[in-house]
């Protein structure tokens, strides 16, 4: 079985435009339309957060931990792990106790008080790529398997080191 895909952040590319947050809220709205979503009650809410940190922007989203503290703490049994490895929520079972919010080590579970409902990233199961990833204008968000993301980061780092040493940008290309 292949590794589940995850959302990764390339912090060097994030410009803090918050497009990902907007796309997330619209995808989770009733209408799935930006202009119609503005009039919805309750108003659509984002499930990821762009935060400034040390002169950079960092996008924080659910890591779908394994083991997942939120899943283990849910007293109503509303949280479960789906076949893609994402920790999902059954809204009908959520009682709004906020226990999951309190135990999340990343602080990325929020609440929709009007409906007494916890809100967390579900990796947009109804579409191929999460809305935040598809909307990111700088491609700072990536949706892929851990091994693929790590291999790409290593290739990039090797290219930077090789270029700094006066070599080729392509670590796989022989030097002249």
List the helices and strands and how they pair.
Blueprint: E1 5-9, H1 19-27, H2 34-37, E2 49-53, E3 56-60, H3 69-73, E4 79-81, E5 87-89, H4 99-103, E6 110-112, E7 117-119, H5 131-135, E8 141-145, H6 146-164
What do these coordinates show?
With 176 residues, the chain is α+β, with helices and mostly antiparallel strands. It has six helices and eight strands. The strands form four sheets. The protein has a two-stranded antiparallel sheet. The longest helix is centred in the C-terminal third of the chain and has 19 residues.
Task: Provide a compact summary of the structure.
This protein is an alpha+beta fold.
Here the CATH topology equals Alpha-Beta Plaits
Which class do the helix and strand fractions yield?
Answer: alpha+beta
Q: How much helix, percentage-wise, in residues?
A: 25-40%
Would you tell me the overall average pLDDT? 90
How many domains?
A: 1
How many helices?
A: 6
CATH class: Alpha Beta
CATH architecture: 2-Layer Sandwich
Order of SSEs? EHHEEHEEHEEHEH
Strand content: 15-25%
What's the number of extended β-strand segments?
8
Give the key terms:
globular; two-stranded antiparallel sheet; 176 residues; Alpha-Beta Plaits; alpha+beta; single chain
